[in-house]
TrEMBL record:
Pathway: Carbohydrate acid metabolism; D-galactonate degradation; D-glyceraldehyde 3-phosphate and pyruvate from D-galactonate: step 1/3. Signal peptide: none annotated. The gene is dgoD. The lineage of its organism: Bacteria, Pseudomonadati, Pseudomonadota, Betaproteobacteria, Burkholderiales. Its EC number is 4.2.1.6. This is D-galactonate dehydratase. SUPFAM superfamilies: Enolase C-terminal domain-like (SSF51604), Enolase N-terminal domain-like (SSF54826). It comes from Duganella alba.
Length: 382
């Protein structure tokens, strides 16, 4: 079997799907994308083609290593997202050829169902209580929200109170009948992280995500020393070569690689097992589409330390497109009592509605995240 064609489709709300075709008619789908840089990743995928066209798609390990090493420069959000989507599609092909879901090729299920969580509150966390109540009725009991709005590197007690008050209201309304993570989203600089973590400690959030920016990872062990709140990070780290330093330094309780940013299934499996050696749990990042989610679930169902899975149904980014818009087998993604079952179909388990994808790609938006500014006019972390 040989790879004969790669086709990318940028589709609403902000995703990109990749179709890899073979000379024997087996097709694999992947989701290579960096939110807000879809066209850049699309070019990176195209630049990977010389390593792939004419090659045997079953040799995923050799193709992965070639894509990673042969271009001399390596790593980073763009190249690792391109490799990620291609890797997902290659695993999809392998499973389809062998007639098995990919998790069966990786040693089989380590659990029967996977715990999912849902975003609430949007970019500027609001209406959270109502949104939690609605999602609770749908069976969710684990949520995530932004911990703050814009925050200066050094900001006021009033801003700290605002963040703390929001969390106090949630605990007041729901007690411990729900759990929630707070995503600092890189908006909190090291000087403010300590203050916020100290003030939030009493409400026991399930985790605080990106307590500081990934480029400040040396703070993770220092912050972990002063709080019992589990610290989570990983969506802006792109290979095991980045994660190894963070694992060795300590401080992270939850690692959140993104299956569409960190080299795909092949790489994230390695990251997951490295994390397990450090007693770090796995909660793959996934505010993206159905192929990315299926790739996450593939890794979740074979990783002992997988504890939580993000999914994008109803997320504030999904304007103009929803998680299941482009799949035929919607029922396979059903979430019951906050859990998702393994996807039973061969490959990644996603049946892509190709007509819908092609149609939607005709007016793909150039999604960008907003540019926020502080009161003094300087750019703010979004
Ligand atoms: O935890 C999450 O889902 C992420 O922080 C998410 O909000 C961002 O990755 C966003 O997709 C970037 O455009
Ligand atoms: Mg996040």
């Amino acid at each position: 079997m040989k790879i004969i064609k790669l086709t990318t489709y940028r589709v609403p709300p902000r995703w990109m799907l990749l179709k890899i075709e073979t000379d024997e008619g087996v097709v694999g789908w992947g989701e290579p994308v960096i939110e807000g840089r879809a066209r850049t990743v699309e070019t990176a995928v195209q630049e990977m083609e010389p390593y792939l066209i004419g090659q045997d798609p079953s040799r995923i390990n050799d193709l992965w290593q070639t894509m990673y090493r042969a271009g001399f420069y390596r790593g980073g959000a763009i190249l690792m997202s391109a490799i990620a989507g291609i890797d997902q599609a290659l695993w999809d092909i392998k499973g389809k050829v062998l007639g098995k879901p990919v998790y069966e090729l990786l040693g089989g299920l380590v659990r029967d169902r996977m715990k999912m969580y849902s975003w609430v509150g949007g970019d500027r966390p609001s209406d959270i209580i109502e949104q939690i109540r609605t999602l609770q009725q749908g069976g969710f009991n684990t949520f995530k929200m932004n911990g703050t709005e814009e925050l200066g590197m050094l900001d006021t007690s009033a801003k700290v109170d605002e963040a703390v008050h929001r969390v106090a209201e949630i605990r007041e309304a729901f007690g411990t009948t729900i759990e929630f993570g707070l995503d600092f989203h890189g908006r909190v600089a090291a000087p403010m992280a300590k203050t916020l973590l100290r003030e939030l400690e009493q409400f026991r959030p399930l985790f605080v995500e990106e307590p500081v920016l990934a480029e400040q990872a040396e703070y993770y062990p220092r912050l972990a020393e002063m709080t019992s709140i589990p610290l989570a990070a990983g969506e802006r780290m792109y290979s095991r070569f980045e994660f190894k330093n963070v694992f060795a330094a300590g401080g992270l309780s939850i690692v959140q690689p993104d299956l569409s940013h960190a080299g795909g299934i092949t790489e994230c499996l390695k990251i997951a097992s490295m994390a397990e050696a450090y007693d770090i749990t796995l909660a793959p990042h996934c505010p993206l589409g159905p192929v990315a989610l299926a790739a996450c679930l593939t890794v979740d169902f074979v990783s002992y330390n997988a504890v939580l899975q993000e999914q994008s149904m109803g997320i504030h980014y999904n304007k103009g497109g929803e998680l299941l818009d482009y799949v035929v087998n919607k029922e396979d993604f059903k979430i019951v009592d906050g859990y998702c079952n393994p996807l039973p179909k061969p490959g990644l388990g996603v049946v892509v509605d190709e007509e819908r994808v092609i149609e939607a790609s005709k007016n793909a938006p150039d999604w960008r995240n907003p540019v926020w500014r502080h009161e003094d006019g300087s750019v703010a972390e979004w």
